[in-house]
From TrEMBL, chain A:
PTM notes: An intermediate of this reaction is the autophosphorylated ppk in which a phosphate is covalently linked to a histidine residue through a N-P bond.
HAMAP family per record: Polyphosphate_kinase (MF_00347)
EC assignment: 2.7.4.1
Required cofactor names: Mg(2+)
GO CC, alphabetical: polyphosphate kinase complex
Active site: H439 (phosphohistidine intermediate)
Highest taxon above the source species: Bacteria
Top-level taxonomy: Bacteria, Bacillati, Bacillota, Clostridia, Lachnospirales
Keyword hit for Mitochondrion: no
Pfam families: PP_kinase, PP_kinase_C, PP_kinase_C_1, PP_kinase_N
Family statement: Belongs to the polyphosphate kinase 1 (PPK1) family.
Protein name (Swiss-Prot/TrEMBL): Polyphosphate kinase
Source organism of this protein record: Lachnotalea glycerini
Domain Polyphosphate kinase N-terminal intervals: 12-118
TrEMBL record, chain B:
Domain Ppx/GppA phosphatase N-terminal: 48-300
Top-level taxon in the UniProt lineage: Bacteria
Domain Ppx/GppA phosphatase C-terminal: 318-470
Alphabetized SUPFAM superfamilies for the sequence: Actin-like ATPase domain (SSF53067), HD-domain/PDEase-like (SSF109604)
Identification of the protein by name: Exopolyphosphatase/guanosine-5'-triphosphate, 3'-diphosphate pyrophosphatase
MF (Gene Ontology): pyrophosphatase activity
Family of the protein in this entry: Belongs to the GppA/Ppx family.
Length: 707, 506
């Protein structure tokens, strides 16, 4: 088949619309009656924060393109203007669905379960009114900064993503109908929901903005408040630094952080019952377009529902909490290096605990034989035990080099703080690479042993973040294979600014070699299929939107390669196009844990090859990031990883199948037994964890009493 | 297991590199890390003849990092060597001082022959059956940034070696300005290279049927993987063909290498190609050794960590003999002198305290002591000196060559004392020079007539005399008569008086 054919924009889905589809699938979880109520609340909250980020980054970037007069069509042949229009429509739909879910399903169900979210302050009981007024006086009033607008005071800067209350005021004792505008930010440091006394013993809460609204007249004593309504704006926040020009990357990012609040307003959320005069002022001052206004029936910014999730005493409305299990075949007592020497170790988070990874670095920091620890850090938790161990290692005289990626989205401020701390402890800190994001997850520990230098390497698909490792499904490999050790050394040499190695043993790196590697692997299946041999690809990732890769997949599919994709988020590939993608299936698993691992399986004429890595099939991963793909070569681990893929393909509870028309539908079970892959992995992990415990020697001494 | 961590630093003309090795008698040389940083020192050195502050700064920063890395590996020993770019720069001494002050590293500047020798050592270590391969005519072709070394082995020994000042970076810089006049840079490079190669051909290649080529250099591994085994000529050359058709950026994209490297790839490949075409060699080896491998090997060998793979001393003697042959030495006289001088050396070990290496230097001095006569009989000493200083002998350091050249010179001319040498030579070398000259003079005096009158010479040390017993029925008045004058210097150096005793019995 001709090259050109696979190029056809009709064969591709726009990535933003595909993303909105993903967020809809998450929303689907909030609407799924089989999920515990508070879990559903959590999912709804996630869709809200997802959407915020999406608007702030993706919509903003498209707006930038439009401003710059850039009108090159995307992979699906849509210009930025057209994309914005379509996105706008979809987002409005999504928001409507969010709030109908909220109002029609969740709120009534909450009420049934004794959780009351008071919609407006007018509905409060007398006792509750007294309570909130006191709460206002003692806790809220002191931190409010009301701002009025008149000829001498210009319209103030409204902070990005902040919730505000706008009010129309009229001077007391003046008869002339002259209205003034005032605004006050709902303090982001105070809890968004306030628990109220309830005589029934139920949980009754109200939002912070309702309490402020009720007391708004106390802020403008000489005025009559005509009306007051909450509003929220979103600004263009995509951080685009020209890295070639930034002589000092660190400074530049710090500067950008402050600048971010000044971006153009790209979304305005208001209550649907907002006073028209008030809205008009906002629209004018914020210079916002009509279609970017969202009139909302319910509380703005649903991310506060996450707080509701942590209400105490409602554990029965949540999914049972899962405790990550010890890693199969690993012991906490035995020296971790010895365990790695005896065999490669596969880690499957969050089913299995992240502790071994932390332990790996902790042990290294104290081990007298360890010479050096090198690590790349992308997103780290606050109070990270890894950071602590690294600092400790440096203090113990180890050579510690850490590449800290400052460009990890929205985390910069956090990253800079602890990067500085590491530097103080004596670590060699590299603040990212010019023009590239370092997304790879690799740790190298160099140890001087009896028979010479030995290198221990951890490679992963997820960040070194012990907090998210409890929520994201990721895979990791601990090995001391010499070939990988050599490559790991070369990786860090490259990250430190030295030349690339003369050749690689096992690893494939983006942005230089990874794309070629993937294409070669896909092509090999294609060649096998052409030769009449069996050919198959199973690939699991977060997003698929790289055109070249999709083209190769189409080409492979067209000659008979069976391709099964497990893509959680964006997927620009379309299925079921005759002669193009009829051998490709795409499924998306959206469950309690965030699917995050990247696994690639190639049938390779019967000698299956399994790779894992940090990269999605996206242009940014393959071209603008440092990513690592590593093979799993140990036969039994290979089997395990393949089994993980197999289980995910069998999922018929949380899996959504991509349809020819671009929508996703849940698997039709047709009477088959339910199979939830995430639950299955939990059960398996517990089973193995238990087996281990039983074999475990008791710590209680058993006295021998009879001889 | 006893393991020595060793760092070998190579400051080349376009790259600074450091290899970290584990050296052990059990596992040999094991490379642990290889860190490279691109710094085109040659750009300054070959064009401006000096290495500027910018590059000096950069170099020092990289070396400083290397020091840190060495620390992190707890390196036991290191050796840092600089090659042609630093060697050819006029401000070498200042540069080395800067490096020492800023990084604490002591950097040696290798002469070309030392540099090549180190590489040959690692070739002998890496290439399987090296000693067997060099039974038949084998050339080692080493293409660097500044120059190319061509060495010829036949029947187990090194016959000749020649340094040609054409290297990848030098050629690229030379032609840099011409790229606007032509799109066919390849043709230009070939033209430039050809004149040098035709010289090589008429001098060395014509008379030997070169069967094997061991090709080394930094850019080969992009075309051929490093290996201890050979590939055929056709396979080797055909791997180049695809590349020659491409532009620099196409090469970079195709081979997935940085563009600067691609720009150096073409000139080096053309040098390989042209020389291989000229020789008609059938088998090509690409062992992929770097100078740093040689530095480490040399260290391991000197410290008896690993076994010697190929005896390079034979090569040194063989190439000295070949030089002697070229300048029409008196073979019998030389042979006689070798025998005499080594006998004297061996019987006076207790007094002079010199070792194996010095014995080799004496032997080379003897072999070359007459070569200047080819040019001028009256100024033979001066001519010999100049010939030796201008001829590369792979395996000898520059300093060693200087000592030999001086010993040969002072063999027949008045000895110049330390102060008068005006710092040309350090103290230890000066003492060595004195000793070698003393022995050379005495043995030369014993065959003054060049007629090999003495047979069965026995040398015995007795009290304060070195008794040289000779069996001869010939008249040795000449030798005896003029002996005193030469013996005087020996006495001055060793406080031992050489005496000739004739045994006329036979």
């Amino acid at each position: 088949m001709e090259n050109k054919e696979f190029n056809n924009p009709h064969y591709y889905q726009n990535r933003e619309l595909s993303w909105i589809g993903f967020n809809k699938r998450v929303l689907g979880e909030a609407r799924d009656k089989n999920n515990p109520l508070l879990e559903r609340l959590k999912f709804l909250s996630i869709t809200a924060s997802n959407l915020d980020e999406f608007v702030m980054v993706r919509v903003a970037s498209l707006k930038d393109m439009v401003h710059a007069g850039y009108d090159k069509p995307d992979i699906a042949g849509m210009t930025p203007v057209k994309q914005l229009n379509e996105i706008n429509k979809s987002i409005h739909e999504l928001v409507n669905l969010q709030y109908s879910t909220y109002n029609r399903s969740l709120i009534p169900l909450l009420k049934k379960n004794g959780i009351h979210l008071v919609k407006s302050h007018e509905e409060l009981t007398k006792q509750q009114k007294e309570y909130v007024d006191l709460y206002f006086k003692e806790n809220i009033y002191p931190v409010l900064t009301p701002m009025a607008v008149d000829s001498s005071r210009p319209f103030p800067l409204i902070r990005n993503k902040s919730l505000n209350i706008a009010a129309l005021l009229k001077k007391k004792k003046k008869h002339k109908e002259e209205l003034e505008f005032a605004t006050v930010q709902v303090p982001s440091l105070l809890p968004r929901v306030v628990k109220l006394p309830d005589s029934r013993g139920d949980a009754t809460v109200i939002t912070l903005e309702e309490i402020i609204e009720r007391n708004v007249d106390k802020l403008f004593l000489n005025y009559d408040v005509i009306c007051a309504h909450p509003y929220r704006i979103m600004r263009n926040a995509d951080l685009s630094i020209d890295e070639d020009e930034a002589s000092d990357l660190l400074k530049e990012i710090q500067k950008q952080l402050k600048k971010r609040q000044w971006g153009e307003a790209i979304r305005l959320e208001v209550e649907d019952i907002i006073d028209d005069r008030l809205l008009k002022i906002l629209v004018k001052e914020l210079a916002i377009k009509d279609k970017d206004i969202y009139k909302i029936n319910g509380p703005l910014d649903l991310t506060f529902l996450m707080k509701m999730y942590s209400l105490e005493g409602y554990e029965h409305l949540k999914a049972p909490k899962y405790q990550p299990q010890p890693v199969k075949g690993m012991s906490l007592e035995e020296d971790i290096f010895k365990q790695i020497r005896s065999k490669d170790i596969l880690l499957h988070h969050p089913y299995q605990s992240f502790d071994p990874v932390v332990d790996f670095i902790k042990s290294a920091s104290k081990d007298p034989k360890v010479l050096a620890i090198k690590q790349t850090l992308y997103r780290v938790s606050g109070n990270s035990p890894i950071i602590e161990a690294l600092a400790q290692a440096a203090e113990n005289g180890k050579q510690v080099s850490v590449l800290v990626e400052l460009k990890a989205r929205f985390d910069e401020e956090n990253n800079i703080v602890w990067a500085k701390m590491l530097e103080k402890a004596g670590c060699h800190v590299i603040y990212g690479l010019v023009g590239l994001k370092t997304h790879s997850k690799i740790t190298l520990i160099v140890r001087k042993e009896e028979d010479g230098i030995r290198r221990y390497v951890h490679l992963g698909t997820g960040n070194y973040n012990d907090a998210t490792a409890k929520l994201y499904t990721d895979l990791g490999l601990l090995t001391c294979a010499e070939a990988i050790g050599e490559d790991a050394t070369a990786v860090f040499n490259m990250l430190s600014g030295y030349s690339e190695p003369l050749s690689w043993n096992k690893l494939a790196l983006a942005p230089l070699w990874l794309r070629e590697k993937f294409i070669k692997l896909i092509k090999r299946e294609e060649v096998n299929a052409l030769a009449g041999k069996q050919a198959r690809i199973i690939a699991k990732m977060n997003s698929l939107c790289d055109k070249t890769i999709i083209e190769e997949l189409y080409r492979a599919s067209s000659v008979g390669v069976k391709i099964e994709l497990i893509v959680r988020g964006i997927c620009c590939l379309k299925v079921g196009i005759e002669g193009v993608s009829d051998n490709i299936s795409v499924r998306s698993i959206v469950g309690n844990f965030l699917e995050h691992g990247r696994i690639f399986y190639f049938y390779n004429g019967g000698v299956g090859e399994v790779y894992m890595g940090s990269a999605d099939w996206m242009p940014r991963n393959l071209d603008r990031r440092v990513e690592i793909l590593f093979p799993v070569e140990n036969e039994s681990l290979k089997k395990e990883v393949t089994k993980i893929l197999q289980r995910q393909l069998e999922d018929n509870v949380k899996a959504h199948i991509l349809q020819q028309d671009g929508t996703y539908l849940k698997v039709n079970r047709r009477g088959k037994q339910k199979f939830n892959s995430q639950d299955f992995f939990c059960r398996e992990a517990i089973r193995y964890g238990k087996v281990k415990e039983e074999n475990h020697m008791s710590r209680v001494f058993i006295p021998i009493e009879k001889i | 297991m006893q393991i020595t961590m060793f760092a070998a630093i190579d400051i080349g003309s376009y790259e600074v590199g450091m290899k970290i090795f584990e050296l052990s008698s059990k596992a040999g040389m094991k490379q642990i890390d290889f860190i490279r940083h691109r710094i085109e020192l040659g750009k300054d050195a070959y064009v401006l003849e000096k290495i500027g502050c910018d590059l000096t700064d950069k170099l020092c920063n990289v070396l400083m990092d290397f020091v840190e890395i060495m620390k992190s590996y707890q390196v036991d020993a290191y050796r840092a060597c600089a090659t042609s770019a630093v060697r050819e720069a006029k401000n070498t001494i200042m540069l080395l001082d800067q490096i020492r002050l800023r990084t604490g590293l002591k950097v040696e500047v290798l002469s070309n022959s030392e540099q090549r020798f180190l590489r040959y050592k690692s070739i002998a270590y890496r290439v399987k059956n090296f000693d067997k391969i060099i039974q038949t005519s084998t050339a080692i072709l080493d293409v660097g940034g500044g120059s190319t070394q061509f060495s010829l082995y036949d029947k187990d020994t090194l016959i000749a070696t020649q340094n040609i000042r054409m290297g990848s970076l030098r050629i690229r810089e030379k032609l840099a300005g011409l790229s606007k006049y032509t799109t066919n840079i390849q043709a230009l490079v070939e033209e430039l290279v050809n004149s040098d190669i035709s010289n090589l051909y008429s001098q060395y290649v014509r008379d030997y049927t070169i069967k094997n080529i061991i090709a080394v250099g930094d850019y080969l591994n992009y075309m051929q993987s490093d290996s201890g085994d050979y590939i055929t000529r056709e396979k080797f050359l055909s791997s180049f063909e695809n590349v020659f058709r491409l532009t620099t950026d196409e090469i970079a994209a195709k081979l997935l290498i940085p563009e600067e490297e691609a720009s150096l790839l073409i000139p080096s490949l053309i040098i390989y190609k042209r020389i291989i075409e000229e020789t008609g060699a059938e088998f090509i080896w690409t062992p992929g050794v770097k100078l740093s491998d040689g530095i480490a090997y040399d260290y391991a060998e000197n410290n008896k960590i690993i076994k010697v793979m190929h005896n390079f001393e034979h090569d040194i003697i063989a190439s000295a003999q070949n030089i002697g042959k070229r300048y029409m030495n008196n073979k019998e006289h030389t042979k006689m002198l070798e025998e005499l001088s080594l006998k004297i050396f061996d019987s006076t070990v207790k007094i002079h305290g010199m070792g194996e290496r010095e014995r080799l230097l004496l032997q080379i001095a003897v072999i070359l002591h007459d070569c200047g006569k080819y040019i001028s009989l009256s100024a033979a000493a001066e001519c010999s000196y100049n010939i030796i200083m201008a001829t590369e002998i792979i395996g000898l350091s520059h300093l060693e060559r200087q000592i030999i050249a001086n010993a040969v010179k002072f063999n027949t001319t008045e000895f110049v004392y330390y102060d008068a040498l005006a710092g040309k030579i350090d103290k230890a070398s000066y003492i060595l020079l004195e000793k070698l000259t003393a022995i050379l003079r005495v043995s030369n005096a014993l065959d003054r007539s060049h007629r090999q009158k003495f047979k069965n010479v026995k040398v015995v040390l007795k009290d304060k005399e070195l008794i040289i017993m000779v069996d001869t029925v010939d008249n040795i008045v000449l030798e005896k008569g003029l002996f005193g004058e030469k013996a005087e210097f020996f006495e001055e150096v060793f406080s031992i008086k050489p005496v000739i005793k004739q045994n006329k019995k036979c």
